[in-house]
Amino acid sequence: MSFEGVSDVLDHPGVETDIVTLASPTTHHKEAALEATPSQSSDASSVCENSMTSDSSDTRWIGKGIPVQDKYNNRPQAATPVDSHSLKYRMNHKRRGLALIIVYEEYGGSGPVRRKCAQDDVNITVRAFQHLGFEIKEHWNLKEQDLKRILKEVAATDHSQSDALAVIFMSHGGLNEKNNREFIWVYDGKVDTSVLWKNFTAENCPTLAGKPKMFFIQACRGEETDKGIQLNKQKGLRVSTDSFDPREKEDYVIPIHADMLMMWASYPGMFAFNSNNFGVKGSVFIHFLCQVLLENSFHDDLATLLLRVTREVAIKYESYVPDNSTRHSKKQIPYTVSTLMRKVYFFERNKFIV
């Protein structure tokens, strides 16, 4: 791009930069020859189990994974906050929930360079998540031991009167080439990125079971950059969607890793930029994420909001680092992984519809 501006920087250390278990819903089959006993109906379904064959797993063929040996009795227990077929999460508890902001500006010893954009990132993040009704807690420059302790303490907190949890993490990051695992920088070293969410599965944090748990990660994920591709206009494709009506209210079983969303600033292996151009002040991803939440959260559900974030980062931003040809005029796109099972509407604070 041909204009004067401040060079963009990256959140990468190598660049100076800134279960519920409740019984499953019962399905009645006219074909069933045997009448289910009370103990049978509390299992998985009213289908006679003698007529069923065991499920298999592809992971077993590569030497991983073992079948579950117990029969429902050893499952963790949690109260369900919403009916099994509800299209929306319940967002009318007494509290919206906690937004945990974990931010790094400085590092000890031989750690990466200072993140000059840290305060700007926190300022806009606080505004956005207060706007959504979250209680804000900030933690700066934590050591590994303190980070893990705080995450465990939050997971052990009673969230039964909360709608959701949000964790916003801002630091440097990268990819460990030895084991191909992503890491994030803390004050005194590196930790696996999974440390951020592993305490919040339904098994480890039962008072958040069946509720949305959102993790937003501003950090580089490798050293590669995206030069982009030029697209020409063409006719769009028609898209259809299917929907169904909520059904009976029943106890049900969910996977322990359900109801979680992780959104990274960039695609795996790619840089995440910071900028003081294009109206951005700080991390590009954090800027667009918070801008969309502030401007559109009372109109759209979370999935639609995050699609907008992805689109705006991808289309509106292009890096400006004119003194570094390998970083100049590059693109960035956020990356989302989700096991959410329902829509999240922040604006339905006092009106819950199933």
Automatic annotation (TrEMBL):
Database matches in SMART domains: CASc (SM00115)
The Caspase family p20 domain, residue ranges: 95-224
Polar residues: compositionally biased ranges: 37-56
Boundaries of every Caspase family p10 domain copy: 250-348
Region (Disordered): 29-80
Pfam family, one: Peptidase_C14
SUPFAM superfamilies associated with the record: Caspase-like
BP term (GO), one: apoptotic process
InterPro entries listed in its UniProt record: Caspase-like_dom_sf, Caspase_cys_AS, Pept_C14, Pept_C14_caspase, Pept_C14_p10, Pept_C14_p20, Pept_C14A
Keywords: Apoptosis, Hydrolase, Protease
A single MF term (Gene Ontology): cysteine-type endopeptidase activity
Record-stated family: Belongs to the peptidase C14A family.
The name this protein goes by in its record: Uncharacterized protein
Organism: Petrolisthes manimaculis
